[in-house]
Amino acid sequence: MDYPGEKLILKLWETLAEKGIGSLLKPWHEKRVSRARNEIRREEILILAQAEKEAEFIKSGKAVYSTDDLKFIPRALNDLNLGNVVVAKEAESVIELSPFSLRASEIEFSESVRKEVNVSKAVMVAEDILAQDSQEPSDSSIDDDWLFNWRENAGRVSSEELRNLWGKILAGELKQPGSYSVRTLEFLKSLSKSEAELISKVARFVIAERIYRNKEKLLEKQGIYFSQLLFLQDIGILSGVEGTGLSTTYKSKSEDKFFQPLLANNKIILIEHKDSGKEALAEVYLLTKVGVEVLRLASFTVDKEYLESVARDYVNKGFEVKVGDWVQETAESGQYFNARVVSA
């Protein structure tokens, strides 16, 4: 293989080709069979930039698109610098429509090109992510309705930050179909920048899909207040914030002794006890299903002081506790290393 994620990328393009998604990249997809992907990325970027430029000229009224011969036609040749664009004929003789109908048609066409460019750029983000992942492709396939929903949402965004988000979503869904529900896609398409920033801040305090209660000082130290947690509950990210909250009871993962690992992104807490029947209790706020899926998209490292505080709480309850680094290797498994004992 030329790169770690070659199998995943092949599955990505097989999936997209079936549904006609990423059509602006299709010619380059065909070349992937015989050429390394890095060799054609420059050509992909150039053709998308060309399409964006042409769509913008059509939208602004500086050019039209002839439905007779399917060519881009500048209205004034000396106004444009579009490289290798083929000019078919003078714009005035392109098509006989009323000015209003023609203009509406032009705007609709330019908008469709813009959406297709946005989708293609999000696909390129997904491809770059998958290229670095050696995980074996899933036997399951992405649901058709989910894929069309994704295309509609990815086509609406033009900012690089949001395109990266939708690229991450596509990559994650391809690796493990069912990772992101349609409800989560609906949530994300209306997410504001300030809301996204708050979620990213709170993500640093999530351990095993939970935020531990009675850690207000540590959260406030990072600018996270109770009112913001209530807001995250209101928009469907957290539950159990109001009232007495919720509690979690962990039972052993092993029959020989009590053993419970708690994942916190790239870190892990290992809780152990000689008594396999012992239970570990904690007061928490729970992430909702949408919250869990949204936080998979966040790039963060867990707050170290908070992690240590949670680990010490379990030590004070009579458990032997270690904290280590964690590397996720597949959807279901990973490895920990550099584990060290936590003292009270």
Question: How does this model look, in words?
Answer:
It contains twelve helices and ten strands. By secondary structure, it is α+β, with helices and mostly antiparallel strands. The two termini are 49 Å apart. Mean pLDDT is 81; it is low at 67-73 and 77-97.
Order of helices and strands: HHHEEHHHHHEHHEEEEEHHEE
Question: How much beta, percentage-wise?
Answer: 15-25%
Largest sheet: 4 strands, antiparallel
Number of domains: 2
The value of Rg in angstroms is: 26 Å
Judged by helices, strands and strand pairing, the structural class is alpha+beta
Can you tell me the residue ranges where pLDDT is under 50 for at least 5 consecutive residues?
67-73, 77-97
- Morphology: globular
- Helix count equals 12
Question: Which range best describes the helical content: under 10%, 10-25%, 25-40%, 40-55%, 55-70% or over 70%?
Answer: 40-55%
Report the average pLDDT across residues.
81
How far is the first residue's CA from the last residue's CA?
49 Å
Q: What's the total number of strands?
A: 10
